[in-house]
Design brief:
- The complex is a heterodimer of chains A (414) and B (86).
- With 414 residues, chain A is α/β, with parallel strands linked by helices.
- In chain A, strands 1, 2, 3, 4, 5, 6, 7, 8, 9, 11, 13 and 14 form a twelve-stranded mixed beta sheet that branches. Chain A has a two-stranded antiparallel ribbon with strand order 10-12.
- In chain A, α3 packs across α5, α6 packs across α12 and α9 crosses α10.
- The longest helix of chain A has 16 residues.
- Chain A is globular.
- With 86 residues, chain B is mostly helical.
- Chain B has a single domain, classed as ACP-like (Non-ribosomal Peptide Synthetase Peptidyl Carrier Protein, Chain A), CATH 1.10.1200.
- In chain B, α1 packs across α2 and α1 packs across α3.
- The chains are: A alpha/beta (414), B mainly alpha (86).
- Chains A and B meet through loops of A and α2 of B.
């Protein structure tokens, strides 16, 4: 950086998450390092009539959380996830809550289905007996409800927005938050996503036959689809200079974001990978980083035959001969696909990998796919203390692509 | 049981059934305890649902201006209101 230019770098100073591996960052990182999937049988709703019977379901919340949150019983499961992750992120960032009314803080959230699960409960009850159906079950049905719940409970009075572009929602929300912090629109951004298991998405992806009957196997031979997950993830973003001035320890630098659309198909990715590559290149340009500085990738890696093949094409377009040796981290193999939150929780996973100097593995399920000669991190954590920067990709239905670049925080002298 | 006591018991049952209050049984609700804020801790959404439930249960109409603190302040005041309408 030139000394005469203002420092526009944005730091990640707090992270929070809940997923099938547990409530909080400690169980998330421990589970990711262990490389054992949190995907298994689940109880949320009757899935006996579906093709598949697995999900990474979140266990019941800690009792202390309900007591700490007024209006708890009005919140959907997705709202509760969001609230927990936001509180954890704000706490690790060392932010005093609730925020002052004049603090310039915004919430940037992603969700695919908001309170859909609760709406389904209402509808089922209504069909059984309209007199017993309680309209209040519909209160948290809006897709913006999780982000709104975060704002309400934390006292955020700046911009509060929700992005809903399928599985790119979380990553797009983070990109918007990055822009808002850089431009000075907000001093601090609470950015992330939340989605809960619901019958709409469970049935929908099953009817598309894009769900595997066993825990998903990204980039492996014989992979047959995704696995469902649920949860929330939140990152606290602020100008690096502000973080250092208040004595906060940056967990990573959020260096850049990019987005694109395949303009190809409602659900299938463009097999050429051109759209995904465009998002990756836009993110690198936004970060001002050359492709050669990226040392690992947290892939979208759903485990569907089409996604992983198209993503491999995109990686070759952007990283050329390096693509085959580039360590790939496939978080969905362990926590499932969190849909509108996937980009946010994989951003958290990426930050944790940079922070801890090691890449989390996935289980060695079956054989490598000879068509996809990738360097997937398998079995054991891969030490990579010198990793300079990493990209996390989100490649969604509708051809919506987003890529986020994070770089390792190496101290004020860097 | 007097008519007023029967109405009071029906209201308590209705509150628990129609508002789906976790861990609350009808006999735990005191006649004079506040329904909103402190006490039972109901909110404005509960008020709306309770109006609908009371109208169905007792065959009465509750005009919006009556949904005030006075009538809805406790089971006892609700009971008096309903007794006066039926």
């Amino acid at each position: 950086m030139q000394p005469d230019q203002p420092d526009r770098r944005v730091a990640v100073t707090g992270v929070g998450a809940v997923c099938g591996l547990g409530w909080g960052i400690p169980p998330l990182w421990a589970g990711l390092r262990a490389g054992q999937p949190g995907i298994g049988p689940f109880q949320r709703f009757d899935h006996s009539q579906h093709r598949t019977h697995l999900a990474a379901e979140v266990e019941a919340p800690p009792a202390t959380l309900a007591r700490a949150c007024p209006g708890w019983r009005r919140l959907s499961i997705a709202d509760r996830f969001a609230l927990f992750a936001a509180l954890e992120a704000a706490e690790t960032a060392g932010l005093a809550m609730p925020f002052d009314e004049d603090a310039e803080i915004g919430v940037y959230f992603g969700s695919s289905t908001g309170g859909m699960y609760e709406s389904e409960l209402f509808f089922a009850e209504f069909l059984r007996d309209p007199r017993r159906a309680r309209l209040s079950a519909l209160i948290p049905q809006q897709v913006n409800a999780p982000g709104d719940a975060v704002a309400r409970h934390l006292g955020v009075t700046g911009p509060v927005v929700t992005y809903s572009s399928a599985c790119a929602s979380g990553a797009l929300a983070l990109g918007a938050a990055l822009d808002a912090v850089r431009s000075g629109e907000v001093e601090v951004a609470i950015a992330g996503g939340s989605d809960s298991l619901c019958q709409l998405t469970y049935a929908g992806f099953n009817s598309l036959r894009s769900v595997d009957e066993v825990p998903c196997r990204p980039f492996r031979a014989g992979r047959a689809g995704m696995s469902f997950g649920e949860g929330a993830a939140v990152l606290v973003l602020e100008p690096l200079a502000r973080a250092l001035a208040r004595g906060a320890e940056p967990l990573a630098v959020f260096a850049g974001a990019g987005a694109s659309c395949d303009a190809h198909h409602m659900t299938a990715p463009d097999p050429s990978g051109a759209g995904a590559a465009a998002a990756l290149e836009a993110a690198l340009a936004d970060a001002g980083l050359a492709a050669g500085t990226i040392d690992f990738i947290n892939v979208h890696g759903t485990g569907t035959p089409l996604n992983d093949a198209a993503e491999w094409q995109a990686l070759q377009r952007v990283f050329g001969e390096r693509a085959g040796g580039m360590p790939l981290v496939a978080t969905k193999a362990l926590i499932g696909h969190l849909l509108g939150c996937s980009g946010a929780i994989e951003a958290v996973a990426t930050v944790l990998c940079l922070r801890h100097g090691e890449l989390h593995p996935v289980r060695r399920d079956g054989e490598a796919d000879p068509e996809l000669p990738v360097a997937l991190v398998l079995d054991e954590p891969l030490p990579l203390a010198g990793a300079r920067a990493a990209v996390s990709t989100s490649l969604a239905f509708g051809g919506s692509n987003a890529a986020l670049v994070f770089s390792r925080w190496t101290g004020p002298a860097a | 049981m007097s008519e007023a006591a029967a109405t009071t018991a029906r209201i308590k049952r209705l509150i628990v059934d129609s508002l789906n209050l976790e861990g609350v049984r009808p006999e735990m609700i005191e006649d004079e305890a506040p329904l909103f804020g402190e006490g039972l801790g109901l909110d404005s959404v509960d008020a709306l649902e309770l109006v609908v439930a009371l109208e169905k249960e007792f065959g009465i109409r509750i005009k919006s201006q009556e949904i005030g603190r006075e009538v809805f302040s406790s089971v006892s005041t609700l009971s008096q209101f309903i007794e006066g309408r039926t």
